[in-house]
Amino acid sequence: MHEMSLAEGIRQIVEDAGRSQGFHKVKTVVLEIGQLSSVEPDSLRFCFDVVMRDSIAAGAALQIDSVPGSGWCMQCAETVPVAALYDPCPKCGSYQVQATGGTEMRVKELEIE
Amino acid sequence: MCNVCGCGTGETRLEGEALDHEHEHEHVHADGTVHRHAHHHADEHAHGHAPYQWVPAAVHGHAHRHADGSVHSHDHAHEGEHIHDHGDGSVHYGHGPAGAHAPGMSQAQMVKIEQNILAKNDGYAERNRSWLADRGILALNLVSSPGSGKTTLLVRTIEELKSKVPVAVVEGDQQTSFDAERIRATGAPALQINTGKGCHLDAHMVGRALEKLTPPEDSVLLVENVGNLVCPAAFDLGEAAKVVVLSVTEGEDKPLKYPDMFAAARLMLVNKIDLLPYLSFDVHKAIDFARRVNPRLEVIQVSATTGAGFADWLGWIDARLGEACAGRQQTVEQLRARIAELEARLAAKG
Ligand SMILES: Nc1nc2c(ncn2[C@@H]2O[C@H](COP(=O)(O)OP(=O)(O)OP(=O)(O)O)[C@@H](O)[C@H]2O)c(=O)[nH]1
Ligand SMILES: [Mg+2]
Ligand SMILES: [Zn+2]
Ligand SMILES: [Zn+2]
Ligand SMILES: [Zn+2]
Ligand SMILES: [Zn+2]
Ligand SMILES: [Zn+2]
Ligand SMILES: [Zn+2]
Ligand SMILES: [Zn+2]
Question: Which architecture characterizes domain B119-331 according to CATH?
Answer without folding.
Answer: 3-Layer(aba) Sandwich (3.40)
